[in-house]
Design goal:
The complex is a heterodimer of chains A (410) and B (269). Helices cover 41% and strands 18% of the residues of chain A. Chain A is an alpha/beta fold. Chain A has a six-stranded mixed beta sheet, with helices on both faces. A four-stranded antiparallel beta sheet of chain A has the order 1-2-12-11. Chain A has a four-stranded parallel beta sheet with strand order 7-6-5-8, with helices on both faces. In chain A, helix 4 packs parallel to helix 5 and helix 9 packs across helix 11. Chain B is α/β, with parallel strands linked by helices. The chains are: A alpha/beta (410), B alpha/beta (269). Chains A and B meet through strand 2, helix 1, helix 8 and strand 11 of A and helix 3, helix 5 and strand 6 of B.
Chain lengths: 410, 269
C-alpha cells in the first residue's frame, strides 16, 4: 500500500498551477450549476482573485488567525504513540486547539472576510456534524452578520450540543427534511437559498467541494495548516517529513495540510471513512468505492447507484459522512500523487481510545481515522520515518455518541 | 428533417397562438400512471411535453418537484424506462415535441453516446440540462449536433447582457426564461418586471422565449403571453398528481383533474 513517491513522475506538474482558469483539476472540478448561480460564482471568483492580492485582506486574515483562532497551532511530537509505531516519529499538527475546536474556522475567517468585502449582509452555510456550522456562526457573530445554517433533520438529532451552540451564537438553524435529511441535502438546500437570495447573500461552503472557485478558495484558506507544519518540521527536525496523513470527508483539512507539500518528495495518504467496512455498502469511501459523476456543482468521485442517483454515506463520524469528495482529491488520486485508503468505524474507535489514554488528547472521530491507519500499518514504518498527522478536531463534540458506542451513559 | 420544436413554433405562429409546455416528472407517481398522463397531455392542450428525469439531488427545484422525483425514483424509474415512456408516446403521437429536462449526472452515468442515440431513436427533440451552463457543455456539444437534439438554455434574472449573448448563441429551439430568482414552484413573478426582462431578451435573440418557474394560473398565462411566446407549467400539474396519490384516486380521476386544470390555462392562451 505504501509505495515510494516517484517524484520524477510529477516533475511535469507544478501543483500550484491548479486549478486552471475554468476551475479544473485535470477533468475534475468545474462549475456545474444552474444559470441563476453562474453570474454569482463568476463574481465571487473575481472578488477572490482581487482579495488574494490585497495586502489589507491578507493582513486581516493573519490578524484573526493569530489573535482569534490562536494560530500557529503547535506541531507536537506524540512520543508515547510513536513508541507503538516501531519508533517512527509521529507529529500531530494540532488544529484541534483552534478556537471552536477544529480546522473549520480557518476557512470561515477567510470566506466571511471576503463576503464582507463584497458587501454581503447575510451568510448561509451547510453543516453535517455541526463543526462548520459552529465556526460559521462564530465568525458571523464576530462580524455582526446574519447567519443561516442548513442542517439535516437526522444530523440535528445526533448533534444536539452543536445545534445549541449555534443558536447561542445567534444563528438560525433550518432543519432540512428533503432527500435523506443529511449533509448532502443541507448543501442542496443552502444552494437553493443562495439562488433565491442572490443579492445580499454569500454561501460559505465548508469543504473543498462545490463549484469553482470554492474548492480552490477553501484549499487556499486551509493551506495555512501545511505552511505552518512545513516551517515547524524544518525547524524541529531539519528535514521534510516522509509521510503526511489526514482523514478525508470532503477533504478540507487534508488538502490544507497536503497542498504546500505536493511538489515535495513526501508520501501522502488520505484516509476515508470505511464505516462498517467498504464491502458492507455502509461507508463514506467515495474514492475507493465511488465513480466519477456530477453533484453540487463539480465533477468528482461520488457514491451513487447505476442510475446515477446519489447514495447515502455512512460513518461513525458525522464530519466524514459525505457521498462525495473535493475535485482536487479526485484528480490527485487519478494521477497517483496521493494514496487513498480507509479505516472502519471500529478501527477509528480503537485509535480514539488509544490516543486519549497515551497522549491525553481526546481526538475527534475524524482524525481518529487517520491515526488508525498509522496503527494498522505500523510494520511499514521504521525508526527513520517521520510522520505528520493532522489532528484536525477535538473530540468534545463526539463524547455522547462515543459513550453510546461503548455502552456507557453520560 | 426539421426539428419538431421549430415545426411547432411555425404552426403556432400561423395560428397566432402561444405555446403551452406541460411538465411532468417521468415515472411519477408510477410507471403506468405516468404513461397515461404523458399520453394524454397533448389532448388536454399541451403543445410541448417536457419530461423531468428524476434525480436524487435536484438543486434548482422546489419542494413539489423534489417530492415528485423521490416518488418516481422510489417507484423504480430510470432513464431506460423513461425512454420506454417516450417510445410508447410516439406510437400514437408523431408531432408533439418532447423535451427532456434534468440534471447531468443520471445522463452521464447512462452513457452520453447511448443517451443521444436513444433520444434520436425514440423521438426526443430537445434537452434542458439544468446544471450544464454554456461553460461546461463541451461534453455534449458534438452529440447534440450529430443527433439533432436541441440544447435549450435557461436565462434567469441574474443573467447579464454578456452572458445573454453567449447563451442565445448556444441555445436552440427556444430560450427558457426562469421568471423568479429561486427554485421551481415557489415565488410568483411580477408581471411588469417580467415584461421588461423578456423584451430585453427579445432584442438579443430571434429565438422564441418561453417563461417558466412559478406559473400556475390562467390569468398569469394570459398576461405573460402578451409579450412572451408561451409558458411552462410544472409544479401546478405535479401538485394534482400528488393530491391524487394522497387521496388514492383512480388514474381516470387524476386525468380528469389535469384536463380541467389545463383547459382553464388554455383559456388564458
Amino acid at each position: 500500500m505504501l509505495k515510494r513517491v516517484d517524484s520524477q513522475k510529477f516533475k511535469e506538474f507544478n501543483f500550484q498551477d491548479f486549478p486552471d482558469k475554468n476551475g479544473r483539476f485535470g477533468k475534475f472540478g468545474g462549475r456545474f450549476v444552474a444559470e441563476t448561480l453562474m453570474p454569482l460564482l463568476l463574481d465571487v471568483e473575481k472578488e477572490y482573485e482581487k482579495a488574494k492580492k490585497s495586502a489589507k485582506f491578507l493582513n486581516e486574515i493573519d490578524y484573526y488567525f493569530k489573535n482569534y483562532v490562536g494560530r500557529p497551532s503547535p506541531l507536537y511530537f506524540a512520543e508515547r504513540l510513536s513508541k507503538k509505531l516501531n519508533g517512527a516519529k509521529i507529529y500531530f499538527k494540532r488544529d484541534e486547539l483552534n478556537h471552536t475546536g477544529a480546522h473549520k474556522i480557518n476557512n470561515c475567517i477567510g470566506q466571511v472576510l471576503l463576503a464582507k468585502r463584497m458587501g454581503k449582509k447575510r451568510i448561509v452555510a451547510e453543516t453535517g456534524a455541526g463543526q462548520h456550522g459552529v465556526a460559521t456562526a462564530t465568525v458571523c457573530a464576530l462580524f455582526n452578520l446574519k447567519c443561516i445554517v442548513y442542517m439535516g433533520e437526522t444530523d440535528i438529532k445526533r448533534q444536539a450540543p452543536n445545534v445549541f451552540k449555534m443558536k447561542l451564537l445567534g444563528a438560525d438553524i433550518i432543519s432540512v427534511k428533503s432527500g435523506t435529511a443529511t449533509l448532502k441535502d443541507a448543501m442542496n438546500e443552502a444552494l437553493r437559498d443562495w439562488v433565491s437570495n442572490v443579492n445580499d447573500t454569500f454561501y460559505v461552503i465548508g469543504t473543498v467541494a462545490g463549484p469553482h472557485p470554492y474548492p480552490m478558495m477553501v484549499r487556499d484558506f486551509q493551506s495555512i495548516i501545511g505552511k505552518e507544519a512545513k516551517q515547524q518540521i524544518l525547524q524541529l527536525e531539519k528535514r521534510l517529513p516522509n509521510y503526511l496523513v489526514a482523514c478525508i470527508g470532503g477533504g478540507s483539512n487534508a488538502l490544507g495540510l497536503f497542498y504546500p507539500f505536493l511538489n515535495d518528495d513526501v508520501e501522502i495518504i488520505g484516509v476515508e471513512a470505511g464505516g462498517k467496512g467498504v464491502k458492507s455498502g455502509k461507508h463514506a469511501a467515495s474514492i475507493s468505492k465511488g465513480k466519477p459523476g456530477f453533484l453540487h456543482g463539480n465533477h468528482t468521485f461520488l457514491l451513487q447507484n447505476k442510475d446515477g442517483q446519489i447514495e447515502d454515506a455512512h460513518s461513525i463520524s458525522a464530519g466524514l459522512d459525505y457521498p462525495g469528495i473535493g475535485p482536487e482529491h479526485a484528480w490527485l488520486k487519478e494521477i497517483g500523487r496521493i494514496s487513498y485508503v480507509n479505516a472502519t468505524d471500529k478501527e477509528a474507535l480503537e485509535a480514539f481510545k488509544l490516543c486519549t489514554k497515551l497522549e491525553g488528547i481526546i481526538p475527534a472521530l475524524e482524525p481518529a481515522h487517520a491515526l488508525s491507519f498509522l496503527l494498522k500499518n505500523k510494520r511499514k514504518f521504521s525508526k527513520k520515518s517521520l510522520i505528520i498527522m493532522n489532528m484536525c478536531g477535538r473530540g468534545d463534540k463526539d463524547i455522547y455518541s462515543i459513550a453510546e458506542h461503548l455502552g456507557m451513559k453520560i | 428533417m426539421l426539428n419538431r420544436i421549430d415545426q411547432k413554433f411555425i404552426n403556432l405562429d400561423k395560428e397566432k397562438k402561444k405555446a403551452l409546455v406541460a411538465f411532468v416528472t417521468s415515472g411519477d407517481p408510477d410507471f403506468h400512471s405516468s404513461k397515461k398522463i404523458i399520453n394524454s397531455l397533448p389532448k388536454f392542450g399541451a403543445d410541448f411535453i417536457e419530461i423531468g428525469i428524476p434525480f436524487s439531488d435536484p438543486m434548482a427545484d422546489g419542494p413539489t418537484i423534489q417530492r415528485s422525483s423521490q416518488r418516481a425514483i422510489k417507484s423504480g424509474i430510470n432513464l431506460a424506462k423513461t425512454f420506454k415512456l417516450i417510445e410508447n408516446f410516439r406510437e400514437s403521437n408523431r408531432k408533439t415535441p418532447v423535451i427532456l429536462m434534468g440534471y447531468f449526472n443520471p445522463i452521464f452515468q447512462f452513457g452520453l453516446k447511448k443517451f443521444f442515440q436513444i433520444c434520436k431513436k425514440v423521438g426526443v427533440d430537445g434537452l434542458i440540462i439544468v446544471d450544464l451552463p454554456p461553460e461546461e457543455d463541451s461534453l455534449i456539444k458534438n452529440y447534440t449536433q450529430q443527433y439533432n437534439v436541441y440544447n435549450i438554455r435557461l436565462v434567469t434574472p441574474t443573467t447579464n447582457k454578456e452572458r445573454l449573448s453567449k447563451i442565445s448563441k448556444s441555445s436552440k429551439g427556444f430560450l427558457y426564461y426562469v421568471s423568479i430568482m429561486g427554485i421551481t414552484g415557489t415565488k410568483k413573478p411580477s408581471i411588469s418586471i417580467l415584461k421588461k426582462s423578456i423584451l430585453k431578451i427579445k432584442k438579443n435573440t430571434k429565438l422564441p422565449v418561453l417563461v417558466g418557474f412559478g406559473i400556475n394560473n390562467a390569468n398569469q398565462v394570459k398576461e405573460i403571453n402578451k409579450f412572451a411566446n408561451g409558458c411552462v407549467i410544472g409544479s401546478a400539474i405535479i401538485n394534482l398528481i400528488e393530491d391524487s396519490k394522497k387521496g388514492n384516486y383512480s388514474i381516470e380521476k387524476t386525468l380528469l383533474k389535469i384536463k380541467l386544470f389545463l383547459s382553464k390555462i388554455k383559456k388564458g392562451n
